[in-house]
Specification:
heterodimer; A: mainly alpha; 4-stranded mixed sheet; 14 helices; 62% helix; B: 6-stranded mixed sheet; 4-stranded antiparallel sheet
Chain lengths: 388, 309
C-alpha cells in the first residue's frame, strides 16, 4: 500500500506542478503579494520579541574620532542607552541610520572644542526607512540629543567645563522631579509590513492552492473516468486516498517552503528562534488543507463548483483568520470569531512563535486543533470518497 | 477467465442487471450485445469491482472480485467507455502511469509503454500531450493503457464509440491479437457488425436480462431462415392482426399503430404480397425495410425493438 500511495502521490504532484495555475499561485503570486502588500503596510519585517538587539547607528564625524572628544563620547553613550549600537567614524557612511555632525569651523580639532568655543552644533539624522519603526528611531535619537543639550545647558549655567566628570556629576545628582514607572506587562505590538504579510499570504495561499488545483484535479479525474479506471486496478481504496492526500501535502510543502525561503532571502523575514516549531505548525496546516481538499472534491459535482467554493472559502477564512491584517487590531467579536476558525488558529500560532517569540508550548493547543481537524476531515473524506 | 453467476444489480427500484450468467474463457472474445441501457456497462462495473453486486458472484481468474479484489484485479485489464486519460500528459506518460499503478516501474515500464504504443500505432506520437490527439488516437491510447500490464482478462466497454473507420478496424485487430495471446476478452458493443466480426460467443442482453447466448451459428439458427420485414406507417391492429395470421410461413413480431415487424421467409420476393395484405387491411405504409437473417434480426425478433433505439 505505501509504495502505490507514494506512486500516486508523486504522479499527482508532478501533474499539479505542470499546471500553469499551480505554478502561478505557488511561485509567482506569493512574491508579488509579499512585495506589494508588505510594502504598503509598513515594509521591513519586525524583529521577533525577546531580548532586543541594539539597532546599528553610525555617528558620522567630519574628522577622525579622537580620544579627548568628550561631547562625541557622551552623545554616543546616550545613543547606546537608547538601544543603538553606535559606530563612530570619520568617513561618510553609505546607508543605514546615520547621525551626521556638520563640518568643523576653521581652527578647531573636534566638536567638543568647537562647542566650548561657542559654535552652534546642528546634527542631522538620516535614515532610508519609513513607517512606524522609523518614527520610533527618530524619537530615540532625539531623546539622546535633547538629553545631552539639557546637560550642556546646566554645565553652562553652573560655569562648569565640558568634560566627562561634569556629565557624571549631573547624572549623580538627586532629581527634583522623579517619575516612577513599573511594567504593566508586555504590550503586544502586532506585526506589520512583511512580518504580517508573509505568514498571512503563505497561510492563505496554501488553502487557495490545495482547494483549487488540488481538489479540481480529483473532480476532473472523476468526471473523465480516471478514478473509475483506478478502481479496477489492484489498488486499495486506502492507497488511492493516501496517495491523493500525500500528493496535496507535497504541493503544500513546496509552496510553504518556497515562501519561507523567499520571505527570508528577498524580504528579510526573520523566522525567529522557533523555526522547527514553525515548520511543524505549517505541516499541520498543510495536513488540514490536504484533508479539506479531499473532502470538498467528494462533495462537489463539477470543477466550476469546486473553484467557486475554493476561492470564496479561502478568501473569507483568510480575512477572518488574520491573514490579511493582524487579528490583534480588529474588534473583539472578530477576534473571537478568529479563535474558532482554522486560519485563526494558524495565524495566532505563527504570531506567537515568529513575532512574539513565545516557546513551542504556547502553540500546542493550536496544533491540537489543526491536527484534530485534519484527522476529522480526513475521516470524512475517506467515508465520502467515490470513484465515480 | 471470467465467471459471472446469477449476477443481480439493483439501484432502488431499477434492476440494472438481472440473474446474469456468463463465462468468458481464455483465448476467446465473449460479446455482450445490447442497446444503450441494457446493463452492459453495469455488468462491466460489477466484473471490474467498481460496483458491488446486489446478488450473485463474479470471479476473475478464479478469484471472487468482492472477496479477493487484489488477486482478481491483478490480471484484469479494463478499457472503459470513457476516455480515461490525462489530457495534459503525453501518451507515453499516460501509459507509464497505468503501468506504475499495476506495479511496473522504471525501465520495464518505459519499455512496455513503448511496446504498447507501437502496437496501437502511436509510437511516433508518444511524447505529445494527449490533448492534441484526435478521437481515434485517444481511443487507441485508451486501449494501450488497458493492456500495458499484460492482463489475462480484458474488459472492453464499447471501445470503438465515436472513432473513425480506420481506427475502428485497428482496434478490432488489437482485440483479436489479445485473444490470440490467450487473453479472455469480454467485449460490450451495440454494433452488430463488430460483434459478428470479432466475437467467438455472444450474449444478447436487454433490460438487464440475458435473452440469448451462443456462438454466431447458434444465434443465427435462432433467427431461423426467415427475413425481417420492418414497416413504418399507420396500422389498424384489429383488422391487420387477423389478416397477418393467415400469411404463410410468417410470424408477427410487433404491431403498433406506427410499426409493423414481421419475420417472413424469402421476404424480398414476398414483399408485394405483404404490402398488399397490409393495404387491404386499412394500413398505410410509408417506410419499408427488409433485413436478411442476422444478429440484428435476432435482436428485433427477441425484443421487438431495434438495437440502436
Amino acid at each position: 500500500m505505501p509504495s502505490t500511495a507514494l506512486f500516486i502521490a508523486a504522479c499527482d504532484l508532478k501533474y499539479l506542478l505542470r499546471q500553469r495555475e499551480t505554478l502561478l499561485w505557488t511561485f509567482l503570486m506569493p512574491a508579488l503579494f509579499f512585495y506589494f502588500i508588505g510594502t504598503v503596510t509598513g515594509g521591513g519585517a519586525m524583529a521577533p520579541a525577546g531580548p532586543s538587539k541594539p539597532d546599528p547607528l553610525t555617528l558620522e564625524l567630519p574628522y577622525e574620532p579622537r580620544e579627548d572628544d568628550v561631547l562625541v563620547a557622551e552623545l554616543a553613550r546616550r545613543l547606546e542607552t537608547e538601544s543603538f549600537a553606535v559606530t563612530i567614524t570619520g568617513t561618510a557612511a553609505e546607508s543605514g541610520r546615520r547621525l551626521v555632525l556638520p563640518p568643523l569651523p576653521a581652527g578647531t580639532a573636534s566638536w567638543s572644542a568647537a562647542l566650548a568655543a561657542g559654535t552652534k552644533l546642528t546634527p542631522v539624522y538620516h535614515q532610508a526607512r519609513r513607517g512606524n519603526s522609523a518614527e520610533l528611531d527618530l524619537l530615540r535619537v532625539g531623546k539622546a540629543c535633547y538629553g545631552l543639550l539639557l546637560d550642556l545647558v546646566v554645565i553652562e549655567l553652573e560655569g562648569g567645563t565640558l568634560e566627562a566628570a561634569s556629565f557624571a556629576d549631573i547624572a549623580a545628582r538627586p532629581r527634583s522631579l522623579t517619575v516612577e514607572s513599573e511594567s504593566a506587562g508586555a504590550r503586544p505590538i502586532p506585526p506589520s509590513g512583511y512580518a504580517q504579510t508573509i505568514p498571512g499570504t503563505m497561510v492563505m495561499f496554501t488553502m487557495v492552492i490545495l482547494l483549487t488545483g488540488g481538489s479540481i484535479l480529483i473532480v476532473t479525474e472523476r468526471r473523465e473516468g480516471l478514478l473509475r479506471r483506478l478502481a479496477s486496478a489492484p489498488v486499495t481504496r486506502g492507497s488511492v486516498l493516501l496517495g491523493k492526500w500525500l500528493g496535496r501535502m507535497g504541493l503544500a510543502v513546496i509552496q510553504l517552503g518556497f515562501s519561507m525561503v523567499l520571505g527570508a532571502l528577498l524580504f528579510g523575514m526573520d523566522w525567529g528562534p522557533q523555526l522547527p516549531m514553525v515548520c511543524v505548525l505549517l505541516l499541520f496546516w498543510a495536513a488540514f488543507n490536504a484533508s479539506l481538499a479531499l473532502l470538498l472534491a467528494n462533495l462537489v459535482r463539477t470543477e466550476g463548483q469546486m473553484a467557486g467554493i475554493a476561492v470564496i472559502s479561502s478568501m473569507v477564512l483568510a480575512a477572518l483568520g488574520g491573514c490579511w491584517w493582524p487579528i490583534e487590531i480588529v474588534p473583539g467579536w472578530m477576534q473571537s470569531l478568529a479563535s474558532m476558525i482554522p486560519t485563526g488558529w494558524t495565524m495566532e500560532a505563527m504570531h506567537s512563535l515568529v513575532h512574539y517569540g513565545h516557546g513551542p508550548a504556547s502553540v500546542l493547543p493550536n496544533l491540537a486543533l489543526l491536527g484534530s481537524g485534519a484527522l476529522a476531515l480526513g475521516a470524512l473524506a475517506a467515508r465520502t470518497f467515490r470513484f465515480e | 477467465m471470467i465467471e459471472v453467476d446469477s449476477l443481480v444489480k439493483q439501484y432502488d427500484e431499477l434492476v440494472a442487471v438481472s440473474e446474469l450468467d456468463l463465462v468468458a474463457k481464455p483465448g476467446e472474445v465473449f460479446g455482450l450485445l445490447g442497446p444503450n441501457g441494457a446493463g452492459k456497462s453495469t455488468t462491466i462495473s460489477c466484473i471490474s469491482g467498481l460496483v458491488a453486486p446486489t446478488r450473485g458472484t463474479v470471479r476473475v481468474n478464479g478469484h471472487d472480485i468482492q472477496r479477493e479484489p487484489k488477486a482478481a484485479k491483478t490480471g484484469l485489464g479494463v478499457v472503459p467507455q470513457d476516455l480515461a486519460l490525462y489530457e495534459d500528459l503525453s501518451a507515453a506518460e499516460n501509459v507509464r502511469f497505468w503501468a506504475g499503478i499495476h506495479g511496473l516501474g522504471g525501465k520495464a515500464a518505459a519499455e512496455r509503454a513503448a511496446e504498447v504504443l507501437s502496437a496501437v500505432g502511436l509510437a511516433d506520437r508518444g511524447s505529445e500531450p494527449v490533448k492534441n490527439f484526435s478521437g481515434g488516437m485517444k481511443r487507441r491510447l485508451n486501449f494501450a493503457c488497458g493492456i500495458v500490464h499484460r492482463p489475462t482478462v480484458l474488459l472492453l466497454d464499447e471501445p470503438t464509440v465515436g472513432v473513425d473507420p480506420q481506427s475502428r478496424v485497428h482496434l478490432l485487430e488489437l482485440v483479436a491479437a489479445q485473444r490470440d495471446t490467450g487473453t479472455a476478452v469480454l467485449y460490450t458493443t451495440h454494433y452488430m457488425e463488430e460483434a459478428s466480426a470479432l466475437c467467438d460467443r455472444l450474449a444478447i442482453v436487454d433490460g438487464g436480462k440475458k435473452i440469448a447466448e451462443g456462438d454466431l451459428d447458434e444465434l443465427r439458427r435462432l433467427v431461423g431462415e426467415r427475413d425481417l420485414v420492418l414497416l413504418g406507417g399507420r396500422f389498424e391492429d384489429e383488422r391487420l392482426a387477423p389478416a397477418l395470421a393467415g400469411l404463410a410461413d410468417a410470424e408477427l413480431i410487433q404491431l403498433s399503430p406506427e410499426r409493423l415487424h414481421l419475420a417472413v421467409a424469402d421476404a424480398p420476393r414476398r414483399l408485394a404480397e405483404v404490402l398488399s395484405l397490409v393495404s387491404a387491411s386499412g394500413g398505410d405504409v410509408t417506410e419499408t425495410t427488409v433485413r436478411r437473417a442476422d444478429l440484428e434480426s435476432l435482436f428485433i425478433k427477441l425484443t421487438g425493438r431495434e438495437l440502436r433505439e
